[in-house]
Amino acid sequence: MHNASLHHIPPRFLDGLYIKRLDFSYNQMVEIDDKAFIGVSPIVQDLVLAHNLLTKIPSVALTALNTILRLDLSNNSISDISSADIFPSLPKLYDTNLGSNNICSIHSATFENLKNSIQIINLGHNCLRSVPSSSIRGLKQLQALHMQKNNIEVLEALSFLNLPVLSLLNLAGNKMAEINRQAFLNVPQMRYLYLTNNHISRLTPHQFASFDQIEMVDLTGNNITDVPEECMARLPQLRYLFLGGNHIHSIGKNAFANSSIVTMSLINNDLTEINEDMLDGMQKLQNVVFKGNKIRLVRHNAFYNTPSLVTIDLSDNESSLRSSIFK
Questions:
Q1: How many CA within 13 A on the CB side of residue 173?
Q2: Which of 91, 228, 266, 291 would suit a FRET pair with 14, their CA atoms being 20 to 30 Å apart?
Q3: Strand partners, 256
Q4: Distance, CA of 165 to CA of 140 (rounded, Å)
Q5: pLDDT value of residue 300
Q6: Pairing between strand 184-185 and 160-161?
Q7: CA-CA distance, 128 to 101, in Å (whole number)?
Q8: Radius of gyration of the chain from Cα atoms?
Q9: 201-327 has which fold?
Q10: What is the pLDDT of residue 322?
Q11: Is the Repeat keyword given for this protein (predicted)?
C-alpha cells in the first residue's frame, strides 16, 4: 500500500491479515481511524507511515499493535506533541522515527509508556527550540538520540539526565553557542557525540571529562577560536576528534594530552604555527590534518612526541618545510 493515493485508513482495514510489515508511506493520509489496526494478526513488527500528511501521532490506533518493533512517522506534518498524543504502551517498540515533521515542543510524558523498550529516537529536522529534557529523562534503554537540524540554542544544565546506556547523541546543525558543563549527568556510556555545524565559540578545560567512554567528538563547523589547556585531556577512549572548519588560532598546552587519539582533523582553521608541545601526550596519533590553515612555521620538534604518526596533511598552508622536521 506504498504510494497508493490513500487518504485515510478505515476501521478494521486489515482485519484477519497476517502481515509483519505494514508500509503506508508516500500516500496523502491526514488521519488514521482509531480502529484501523483492530483485527490484524499479532505479528506486525514494522509500521511505516512516512511521507504522509498526518498532523498527530495516531496514539489510539497504535494500541492494537503491541508486537510492533519499529515505527516510522517521518516526513509528515506532526506539530507539537500534547498529552493527548503521547505514545501508548507498546512493550516491544525500540525504534521510532519522528524526523522531518513540525515538532517544536514535546509533552513530558510522550515516551513514558516506552521507557522500558525504546532504544532509538529520531527527532531530527524539526523545530525544537530546546532539548526536550523532561520527555527523555530516565529512558533506561535509550542508546541513540538524533536531534540534528532543529533550533536548539543552548544545552542547559541537566539537559540529559539518567540515560544509562545512551551512546550516540546527534546535535548537528542546531544553533548552540555554548555547552553547559552540567548539561550531562549520569550519561556514562556516551561514545559518539555530534556537535557539527553549530555556533559554539568557547571550549573549557576538561570540557568532556564526564564521558569516560567517549570515542568520537565532532565539532566541525563551529566558531571555536582556541582550544584551552587540557580541553581534551584524560579521555582514555577518545579515538577520533574533528575540529575542522572553525577559527582556531591557538591551542593550549596539553590540550590533547590523551594517548588514545588516532585521528585528529584541524582542517580549515587559522593556525599560524605548529609548536613543540601542541601534540604532546598523543602517543597513538596516526593521522593529523592541518590542511587549509595559515601555517608559516613548523617547529623543529613539533612531531617528536608522536611516534605512531603515519600521515600529516599540511597542504594549502603558507609554510616552506625542512625535511629535518620529520626526522
A1: 12
A2: 91
A3: none
A4: 7
A5: 87
A6: parallel
A7: 10
A8: 24
A9: 3.80.10
A10: 56
A11: yes
DSSP per-residue letters across 132-187? -HHHHTT-TT--EEE--SS----B-TTSEES-TT--EEE-TTS----B-TTSEES-
φ and ψ at residue 203, rounded to 5 degrees = -115, 160
Q: Residue 322: which residues within 8 A CB-CB, separation 6 or more? A: none
| Predicted pLDDT at 319 | 75
Residue 170's pLDDT is: 99
Of the candidates 211, 269, 267, the residue with the CA atom closest to the CA atom of residue 236: 211
> 183: which 3 cell numbers?
548539561
Alpha carbons within 13 angstroms on the beta-carbon side of residue 47 total: 28
If we measure between CA atoms, which residue out of 217, 211, 219 comes closest to residue 190? Answer: 211
Q: Which three cell numbers stand for residue 6?
A: 490513500
Q: What is the pLDDT of residue 325?
A: 55
Q: Strand, helix or coil at 97? A: strand
Q: In the structure grid, which three cell numbers stand for residue 34, read together?
A: 482509531
Grid coordinates representing 173 are 546543525
pLDDT at 106: 98
How many whole angstroms separate alpha carbon 262 and alpha carbon 241?
Answer: 8
Residue 325, phi then psi, degrees to nearest 5: -60, -30
- pLDDT at position 143, please? 99
Q: In the structure grid, which three cell numbers stand for residue 45, read together?
A: 513488527
CA distance 247 to 265: 13
Q: Where are the domains of the chain?
A: 201-327
10 Å CB burial of residue 181 (0-12, 13-18, 19+) is middle
Give Cα 258 distance to the centre of its chain: 23
pLDDT averaged per 10 residues in sequence order, the chain, 327 residues:
83 91 96 94 95 97 97 98 96 99 98 98 98 97 99 95 98 95 94 98 93 97 97 94 98 89 98 94 96 95 93 90 54
Buried b (16+ CB within 10 A) or exposed e, 215-254: bbbbbbbbebebbbebbbbebeebbbbbbbbbebbebbeb
Is 49 within 8 Å of 24 (Cβ atoms)?
yes
